[in-house]
């Protein structure tokens, strides 16, 4: 088609290409990959200068007009995108605005300025200092996490100083995996002096925010902030690891309204524009207090399949519209199901994977639950503790995307689907029950 729009997507693979095509007017778009999927998602090493050069060359050497560059992946794609967009005159938020969200210390500074009542106490920690906790006044208990991270990697609850010093060797050993690549990104930004000294190899201590957790996904277009979905983020019954991302949210409207007002104030203060975002909140239903956890600077691929199931279109619609300078009109309500979730099937104990589900077993799940998707994350012979970029308490073995008429049916379907997948582990164990207990909002 002569009027086709060329949309470039970081780390595009067949699974996510299928999602990207599930948008309004999909015949108008031609999708192209930027950087190989294995370079973008959990590679052995992130070579940021090489990745920037390759992404730049892909757009520069393309034989035709480039209309937009989008990402559904976290770091480093989310921070390379504004660099490449700036070079090629494409629409996106500025790199500095992105870093005000993704640099966890800078983000907290912005939040304290814009929405102080929703921001916990925090402090930067240099894990390589002689006494990293010296001068840290955040009261126990608190969380520590890297200035740049994802999937809760190297995130720990600290109830006393001994807890921190117990995990400090692990932090020192592993923090540079993302810290050094993040420092390469920081070289491209204009940083305030107080932020520049807190580089990617720092941690942040944050006062613990209590309550239930949800994520708002939205966008800013020409200064206008809008929210298109709210996702309930549910942890296991011991509150260690996320077990599902569920649509639609069960939170009351008055809390949603408060979160929207806080989001508008924060994104305006940051100067964020012409880009999707996701912002996560806690709500304590006993005190009715809310608090902000973090802001991401992209649509989330973890939400795409649920939106297709419930709304009939992927959130890629939002990213594409913004890249083309259009105000997104995302509201279809044409999905097959009323309820949907991405389930993260986990093991909490280390073991070697002795067997993964066969093609027949996966096919049986897909036939039993129409519209379902199954992605296996491990291989036979692989030790779970060797998996890259896992959270600090469990190992993600598979992702299951399921829809249903209501929440009860959805949770029952998940238990059945997990039981149909014939995983086997060297310790003779199976998937712990704490992730299947019917925890509801």
UniProtKB/TrEMBL annotation:
Signal peptide range: none
Matches recorded under Gene3D superfamilies: ATP-grasp fold, B domain
Name assigned to this protein: ATP-grasp domain-containing protein
InterPro entries: ATP-dep_AA_Ligase, ATP-grasp, CPAse_ATP-bd
A Pfam family hit: ATP-grasp_4
Keywords: ATP-binding, Ligase, Nucleotide-binding
GO molecular function, one term: ligase activity
Organism listed in the record: Caenispirillum salinarum AK4
SUPFAM superfamilies linked to this entry: Glutathione synthetase ATP-binding domain-like (SSF56059)
Transmembrane parts of this sequence: none
Domain ATP-grasp: 107-324
